Amino acid sequence: MTLIFPRPGERAGDFVKRNVEGHLVEAMGTDFIKGLHDGTLPHHLYLQYIRDMYIIVTGFCGGLGRMIGKFDAVTDARLLINLYRQGTEEIGHNNLWRAMLTHHGIDHAKLYDEYRAYRASFSMADWSYMSEWVGRKSNIWCPEYVSHRGLSEVTYPQAILPHPILALAYHMEKTSDGNDPWIYFSCQTAIETCLVELVSYGLPNYIKANPQLFNDPVTTAWWREHTKTQSGQKGSDEERHVRVSWALLNRNAKASEPMHEAIRITLKLFVTVMMWSDRAQLYENEKWYAEDPNGVLAA
């Protein structure tokens, strides 16, 4: 993967788009995305992915909340209106994801509570220490990192979620707590831009090929809201959301070296989550399934 550095005077939104383009090829080359695109991804890998990503999806709301708190309600009123609107959309999308999990018998409330308890069991200093390896190695990504067997237990002791998910969640939280809110917003926008492209590429075929997995509108609602529409049609919610984010970044921030580093780690971790999903049999994932109402786990 060629590193993508800021150009002199480049606006932040344009920089995010260039970074996403650079990582999309890598993401689409994973067996996970290929399996979605050709409709052959095993059901249990799909279900594990939507379960594991719940922490990242819901984390966007928390990150936006921390970001909003860094602006002035008077001098930044116009900007805050846009950010509040985006926060409202994120809450709506979170509800769609929860409905999808519930339909598949995944206990999202238990998962969230257990994640919060695990998160609170370590200080931010502990999380920084445990995740330091991830940040230092993010530019070379040793193959051992995406193998559960090759990952040191000291990284995340008794981890309740795959290590790349925990690393990405920590990275996003740490970035949102930083002094520059636009660095966090660039990272979130990078993930959202990547998701729209990958969902549009992989999910329509997978949905058609697996009707037993998508036998209710709630199972496709989140994906529909994040799929690109054909030229000339009204864009999906997330398409509009991403375009607004690019515009906000271009209007308010220039690309910088700290932003470059944060986006690079964000997208590399995001791709690594998919690489991990290729190896999901290495991770015990049954504990958060309340039941299997549609019999999809056996498929």
Briefly characterize the structure.
This protein has 299 residues and is an all-alpha fold. The protein is built from twelve helices and no strands. The protein has helices at residues 12-28, 31-37, 43-52, 54-68, 77-103, 108-120, 124-137, 163-176, 181-209, 221-225, 237-252, 257-277.
Descriptive report:
It is a single chain. The chain is mainly α. It has a single domain (13-232, 239-283), classed as Heme Oxygenase, Chain A (Up-down Bundle), CATH 1.20.910.10. Helix content is 63%, strand content 0%. The chain has twelve helices and no strands. The chain has helices at 12-28, 31-37, 43-52, 54-68, 77-103, 108-120, 124-137, 163-176, 181-209, 221-225, 237-252, 257-277. The longest helix has 29 residues, at 181-209. The radius of gyration is 19 Å and the shape is globular.
Which series of helices and strands comes N to C?
HHHHHHHHHHHH
> What is the CATH homology-level superfamily?
Heme oxygenase-like
Write the CATH architecture name.
Up-down Bundle
Class, according to the CATH hierarchy? Mainly Alpha
The number of domains is 1
CATH topology: Heme Oxygenase, Chain A
Identify the notable features of this structure and list them briefly:
299 residues, mainly alpha, Heme Oxygenase, Chain A, 12 helices, 63% helix, disordered C terminus
Write the layout of secondary structure elements.
Layout: H1 12-28, H2 31-37, H3 43-52, H4 54-68, H5 77-103, H6 108-120, H7 124-137, H8 163-176, H9 181-209, H10 221-225, H11 237-252, H12 257-277
Helix pairs in contact: 1-9, 1-11, 1-12, 2-9, 4-5, 4-8, 4-9, 5-11, 8-12, 9-11, 9-12
